[in-house]
Design a protein that fits this description.
Cytidine Deaminase, domain 2; 2 domains; about 20% strand; Dihydrofolate Reductase, subunit A; binds NADP nicotinamide-adenine-dinucleotide phosphate; about 400 residues; 15 helices; elongated
């Protein structure tokens, strides 16, 4: 039964703020925030902290029952118990409460058992196991439900999750740094840093927000990148690359031969592979030509500087680069990767653009010229979605309108 109750934007916006605190830790689950309001006062808050752990609604309910300081004062003033306050409160949640037993019991059931009489929801959950069932379960139990509240705003926190569920692939961000005259790097010579310290820190902050980071074979061999987040605290992404034509394999064998090292892994060879990509300090995945899969087994057995896993994933090689980009996304979806940053080089980036396998492009633009080298990828004609200036450098962000429509 619907009453004359009017939901308040402030409370749902607080739920969005809370949801964002889970960024980088909950994927491929959604970032969800929840607040519980008793007589226009927030008495409980919660968000989904970590993949596999309690959902936002349960954390918010528990924060009332614990109870927190606000609840303790209210209980003293009113003579009510925390359970009584919940039975007279409104729960605001950014995503429809789940209705199924996954890693945790259904949140809709928990809300019903707690006796919360009213729920305000921003976005429906497209996951086929939920998709309206959470709302239905609440309504059938007599809970008053208000849906689609600040839905567009709410959607911002669910871009990754909705892409993962509805398009069956990770959310894809293409990122590169270019000189003011449009080059990614010099064609020859040492790798060069294109942008200054602020944008490097920003780049590392971006890395901890996503599940995986990918570069092409050319970049692995030219730059020997670490692909980690060392300038910003947070979860390290899975690092990903490819070796479809055995160039990395050949480079490693040549290095081992030239340095008189055997190519049979043994404990004393820990960390002796020439490329940082294989140092096992971070979870790593390499796509290789399926017909040559066995040639790569020794890499997976090679001890590194750390103990993180190295997974070799076979793919069917075609000469159509955009199709290969789609194959990587299928492979990463199987690994439960909810979001991916592709950081170069030009060839790999362009294949994602040509295949339209992207959701966002972030271009870091330096104030210096390179005067030649590898040209930056060509962006489909569109206006940037946003600009930001960092000293004399810029970040332009583009959004894929076609992919936005499908979310
Ligand atoms: N400024 C920046 O932001 C930035 C970032 C990264 C790199 N860079 C620079 O870019 C240069 C390397 O660029 P690059 O274009 O030569 O290298 P890249 O894009 O890193 O690698 C290209 C190679 O990756 C393999 N590949 C596998 N799947 C692919 C796909 N779907 N599409 C395209 N290639 C695919 C191919 O090698 P196989 O034939 O062996 O399969 C291809 O030749 C370096 O100088 C590096 O410093 C700059």
């Amino acid at each position: 039964m619907q009453t004359s109750f009017q939901p308040q934007e402030t409370f749902m916006r607080r739920a969005f703020e809370l949801a964002a605190l889970g960024r980088g830790y909950v994927s491929p689950n959604p970032m969800v925030g929840c607040v519980i309001v008793y007589q226009d006062r927030i008495i409980g808050e919660g968000f989904h902290h970590q993949y596999g752990e309690a959902h936002a609604e349960v954390n918010a309910i528990n924060s009332v029952l614990t109870p927190n300081a606000t609840v303790a004062v209210l209980c003293r003033q009113t003579g009510l118990k925390p359970e009584d306050l919940l039975r007279q409160s409104t729960l605001y949640v950014s995503l429809e409460p789940c209705a199924h037993y996954g890693k945790t019991p259904p949140c809709a059931k928990k809300i019903i058992e707690t006796g919360i009489p009213r729920v305000v929801v921003s976005c429906g959950d497209p996951n086929p196991e939920v998709n309206g069932k959470g709302i239905q379960m609440l309504r059938e139990a007599g809970v008053e439900v208000h849906e689609h509240f600040l839905e567009q705003e709410g959607m911002e926190t669910f871009r990754r999750f909705f892409t993962h569920v509805t398009k069956n692939r990770p959310y894809v961000i293409l990122k590169w740094a270019q000189s003011s005259d449009g080059y990614l790097s010099r064609s020859q010579g040492k790798p060069c840093l294109i942008t200054g310290k602020s944008l490097q820190v920003l780049n590392h902050a971006y890395r901890v927000e996503e599940d995986a980071i990918m570069v092409g074979t050319g970049t692995i061999l030219a730059d020997n990148p670490r692909l980690n987040a060392r300038m910003f605290r947070g979860k390290q992404p899975l690092r990903v690359s490819t070796d479809l034509h055995g160039k990395i394999l050949k480079y490693i064998h040549t290095y081992l031969t030239e340095n008189g090292l055997p190519d049979k892994p043994s404990p004393e060879l820990a960390g002796k592979l020439p490329l940082r990509f294989f140092d096992r300090t971070q979870r790593t995945l390499l796509f290789v030509d399926g017909t040559r899969f066995d040639e790569y087994r020794f890499l997976a057995d090679w001890p590194g500087l750390g103990n993180e896993s190295l997974k070799i994933v076979p793919v069917k090689v075609t000469t159509a680069w955009p199709e290969m980009a789609a194959a990587y996304l299928r492979g990463l979806q199987k690994e439960r990767i909810g979001s991916l940053i592709v950081e170069g080089g030009a060839a790999l980036l362009q294949s994602f653009i040509v295949g339209d396998h992207w959701d966002e492009i972030r271009v870091f633009i330096s104030d210096k010229d390179l005067g030649g080298g590898y040209a930056a990828p060509r962006i489909p004609p569109s206006k940037p979605y946003s600009f930001a200036q960092y000293g004399s450098e810029w970040v332009h962000v583009y959004r894929n309108k076609a992919s936005d429509r499908l979310i």
